[in-house]
Amino acid sequence: MSENLSLKTFVVLMKSAKSVQEQIKTDISSYGMRTSDFEILEVLYHKGKLTVREVSEAVLINTGSITYVIDKLESKGLLERSNCKDDRRVVYIQITNQGKQLMDEIFPKHQQVIEDMFSDITTEEKRVVIDVLKRVGLKADNE
């Protein structure tokens, strides 16, 4: 029987993704945070003020669950809400100075963990992986 490279690629991708996720989860927990907390702070840290919907789409957390996480982060003083002046249904979220200081301290360490995971891969290989995974994702979205 011939080797099914699509199936093998899928299995390797899923195992690799699981290993990477576990490493990231371990790193984030070393800062006393949950992954969902870190993801929300990270997107606000890099993108600035966003709506709840934009944050939800960026971090892949559904809007029902995200409210709970935002409430916790707001109670810790790490982010704040503000209402949209033009549309009362829209709520903006932004990182506070305290949240920014926290991310200034921990994000470079987190980024180094990611750099270390990819240290054996050349720049060109990274570009190829990005391209291939984007195409696979687009194909899956369109099926």
Largest sheet descriptor: 3 strands, antiparallel
Mean pLDDT, to the nearest integer, reads: 93
Pick out the low-confidence regions.
none
Distance between the termini: 28 Å
Helix percent reads 55-70%
SSE run: HHEHHEEHH
Total number of domains: 1
Second CATH tier, the architecture: Orthogonal Bundle
SS-based class? mainly alpha
Total number of β-strand segments?
3
Give the overall form: globular
Domain HTH marR-type: 1-138
Pfam families: MarR
Protein name: MarR family transcriptional regulator
Keywords: DNA-binding, Transcription, Transcription regulation
Write structural notes for this entry.
This is MarR family transcriptional regulator. This protein has helices at 5-29, 35-47, 52-59, 63-75, 97-117, 123-142, and strands spanning 50-51, 79-83, 91-95. With 143 residues, the protein is mainly α. The protein has one domain (5-142): Winged helix-like DNA-binding domain superfamily/Winged helix DNA-binding domain (Arc Repressor Mutant, subunit A). The protein has a 3-stranded antiparallel sheet with strand order 1-3-2. It is globular, with a radius of gyration of 18 Å. It starts with a helix and ends with a helix.
Compose a concise summary of this entry.
Residues 1-138 form the HTH marR-type domain. With 143 residues, the protein is mostly helical.
